[in-house]
Design brief:
Protein name: Uracil-DNA glycosylase
Helix content: 25-40%
Radius of gyration: 16 Å
Number of helices: 6
Strand content: 5-15%
Order of helices and strands: HEEHEHEHHEH
Mean pLDDT: 92
Number of strands: 5
CATH superfamily: Uracil-DNA glycosylase-like domain
Organism: Orenia metallireducens
Low-confidence stretches: none
CATH topology: Uracil-DNA Glycosylase, subunit E
CATH architecture: 3-Layer(aba) Sandwich
Oligomer: single chain
Number of domains: 1
CATH class: Alpha Beta
Length: about 200
């Protein structure tokens, strides 16, 4: 299909597609992006989608609860390790629509997420210059956003090598910084000191 950069058209396409309509829920409105002051944003945080135990959310990651959001607690803890506050973030999902299945159980998630990439890039480019990096919170997001050179299931590699994903290596054309929600990737662990320090000095040099 042709590239779609309008979210209304994407949703209409998904809900009428012979296959994808069996995976997508027609729930509106979907969660809003979260930001405190767009002029103070230092980084974007990207989730996979809003599907979570069929709970409808006002903002992505349930950030209507701000720092008390149970869905953002792990990510916020990691961000605090590198000196970032909730007020400095723009938080969004790659897929804005709700699904019938959670991400790990959705075998069509990557295909559908590919449709959302141009829309997300348009959104970010309209708001921020290219110096604003993107934190990604799941390995499946990395696989969709990155070109072949970075694909694969070795999600620890960025942590182990203290490497970011560079703009030319991904479809957003920005620095991407993996910051996974799983407890194995807590930046407070000594194992990830080099990676934590690299992120910290990126924002605090």
């Amino acid at each position: 299909m042709a590239t779609i950069i309008d979210e209304v058209e994407i949703l209409d396409y998904l809900l009428n597609h012979e296959v994808y309509k069996e995976y997508c829920l027609d729930l509106k409105p979907y969660p809003k992006e979260y930001h405190y002051d767009i002029n103070k944003v230092k980084a974007v945080v990207l989730g996979a989608d809003p599907s979570n135990n069929n709970e409808e959310l006002e903002y992505v990651f349930g950030l209507e609860e701000k720092e008390d959001s149970k869905y953002f607690r792990m990510t916020l803890g990691n961000l605090k390790e590198v000196g970032l506050k909730l007020e400095q973030l723009y938080v969004q999902n790659l897929c804005k629509n709700y699904f019938k299945y959670e991400t790990t159980e959705n075998d069509k998630w990557s295909e559908i997420a590919e449709l959302w990439v141009p829309c997300l890039r348009k959104e970010l480019d309209s708001l921020f210059d290219k110096s604003i990096p993107v934190f990604i919170t799941a390995g499946k997001i990395r696989d969709v956003l990155c070109y072949d050179v970075k694909k694969g299931k070795d999600y620890k590699s960025n942590y182990e090598k203290a490497e970011f994903i560079m703009p030319e290596e991904n479809k957003l054309g920005r620095i991407i910084i993996p910051l996974y929600r799983h407890w194995n990737y807590k930046l407070s662990e000594f194992e990830w000191k080099d990676y934590r320090d690299k992120i910290y000095y990126t924002f605090n040099d």
